[in-house]
Design a protein that fits this description.
The chain is α+β, with helices and mostly antiparallel strands and 326 residues long. The protein has 2 domains: 120 residues, Chitobiase, domain 2; 162 residues, Mog1/PsbP, alpha/beta/alpha sandwich (Protein Transport Mog1p, Chain A, 3-Layer(aba) Sandwich). It contains 7 helices and 15 strands. Strands 7, 8, 9, 10, 11, 12, 13 and 14 form an 8-stranded antiparallel β-sheet that branches. A 5-stranded mixed β-sheet has the order 2-1-3-5-4, with helices on one face. α3 packs parallel to α4 and α4 packs across α7. The radius of gyration is 24 Å and the shape is elongated. The termini are far apart. The relative contact order is 0.11.
Length: 326
Amino acid sequence: MRIVYTLFICALLVACGEEKKEDRTTYLPASNGNLNSISVVIDNQLWDGNVGETIRSVFAAPINGLPVDEPKFMIRQIPPQVFDGFATRSRIVLKIEKGDDASETKVVKDAFAKPQTLAVIGGLTNDAIISQIKTIKVKIIDAFNKEEVKEKQRRISLSLLADEKMEKQLGFSIDIPSAYRISKAAEDFFWVRKNLSTSKTIELMFYEVPLNSISKGDSTIVDIINVRNNITKTKIPGEDDIYMAVDDIYAPSMFKTIIDNKPAYEVRGLWRMQGYTMAGPFITYVIEDKVNERYLIADGYVYAPSLNKSEYVFELEAIIKSIKIK
């Protein structure tokens, strides 16, 4: 009987501990902030020196595949002595700690608010901090980007486009805002658009190609561009032989990524209308779907002359990354 009683007390203590842990995250205040905006908690002297320069060069670096330079993240500095209360609720935070007791670099979820990603970088000297920033920058940028994509997807999910026919036809699900409309629906190709104004648009294309259409190696990006150019020329041609093609003056960038737990290629670059003065950025995701022996391709592009385009390309990225293949 005493053993049973002891086990009961232990189980109760564990349950209480779990409840306290759950309560801490449950009652955290909601995070805030504009999308892709980092609060950098750093001493004024460090911010004005070479540490601040490094932070700006890394986190406010230009985004690949845009016609003009636009920063990956907007940055605002917060001195440590005023990092309290409402200031701690930013959704993404970079905290710099210098001194003998400086902590190691770490990424923490939901430290002061929910949802939130906090990256802490420490070092004894300025050079040590700079070295840490450069060493860990890819991991931190990836963590920040995932947080912001998740937040954008949450906002998108509040009002969704009815796209059941497309999802059934191509065998996947996706969250697209209701502000978009399906402009063309074929057996193997769907074209989705949103008007920003009478002459400015954000657009998406969805289609599939056999696995052998795109090789793995040095020619992967060439194959992807050839596939895209063929699709835009044959599926959405304009009048008088006008059609869209990847702008070969600016070399596109390609990265490996993961979508729906499947390997994928991400390609960013510029498109140009052949025979007409129109151009803009595009972002293409080529998702390897071995089960269905195909690549599912989701391609987004923007035509918004005179406007900054980073927020629109980011919207396309968030939409496409919500794909789930059936």
